[in-house]
Amino acid sequence: MKIIDAGVIITAPGRNYVTLKITTEDGVVGWGDATLNGRELAVATYLRDHVCPLLIGRDAHRIEDIWQYLYKGSYWRRGPVQMTAIAAVDIALWDIKGKVAGLPVYQLLGGAARDGVMVYGHASGSSVAEMLDDVAAHLDEGYLAVRAQSAIPGMDKVYGVPPKDGRLYEPASSNVPQEETWETGPYLRFVPTMLGAVRERFGFDVHLLHDVHHRLSPLEAGRLGRDLEEHRMFWIEDPTPAEDQSAFQLIRQHTTTPIAVGEIFNSIWDCQQLITERLIDYVRTSVSHAGGITHLRRIFALADLYGVRTGSHGAGDLSPVSFAAALHVDLSVPNFGIQEYMGHRDPAGEVFRTGYKFENGYMHPGDAPGLGVEVDEQAAAKFPYDPKYLPINRRRDGSMHDW
Ligand code: KDG
Ligand code: MG
Fold first, then answer.
1. Which residues pair with 158 in a beta bridge?
2. Residues 96 and 151 in one domain
3. pLDDT in the model for residue 342
């Protein structure tokens, strides 16, 4: 079944998304997500100029071979741009395979290993009281797991807290990245109290998560983990910049608070040491940034061998196409842990027609053949690309810090 066309759609229904469309000789269309927040056009160009021409004439059914062809064949391996591009191709080919077979993708991956996929939502606030109300709202909606972030007294902006007037918590800006300030001391003093307030009001039945967003040193992370032990966290996420994998040995020596890492990883090699030395509890690699369904399954299989569970990234900058793909993988792997679900706010729904469902804290990708997401190209054309950058962090002395 030959591929006869491959093209890229860039659209911004609320935020920027890059989508790959692959068409086969018998008219079957597969969709892939190629969105790399803040660097969207790099992936779009990589696909348009270097990948799409190579796909024409290839057999769409040979997913593994096409994956290897694009990965090994480029000579320059890995990196977020290449791996996001390969992911888009891979996701689109699984979509095609499912549509041709008349089966949802999870059936091709071995079938459902559970009835639903537990997801966590984002609760936040510009004060602890506001954050607690947001946790309550999530529990009312049926969530069983909630990530809690709150503004820190004395600091003007903190990651994960949306401005009061809107829900886009990554205050992306045009032209140049918005600058924020960061000091570790106030954060470390405040967070145990803030998360303790959640436990005090809601008890221990809700799964509680917190994202540190790469901002601590290993020793600081160890101290935070220890201070949070009494709150029995589901996890703390990205405590330190994780390209330094051996740093996690130090964190592990100091705390039993579970650790989740991997949303910015793009290959199995990025998490090899973390997994094989059991330095983390959850691996957060995503289907769209870590080489697609084919490569993500390989990472998850390695993780399974070492008792590490999955906890994939699912922020709103991953399009509904990759969110659906994530649900198909989540439903089928033995070592699923949890899935992040931030949702996509309208007008994204005008462009991406989804079939996945949320019920009582669990999600299901639906049973439509393929991924179960279709893209309305006419609607996409109404929302032109809107260049945006993620913010950056500086310490009070002006030096750059991890955001
Ligand atoms: O594009 C960056 C976001 O996806 C990231 O900041 C969100 O850390 C994040 C999370 O855990 O969802
Ligand atoms: Mg994160």
1. none
2. no
3. 94
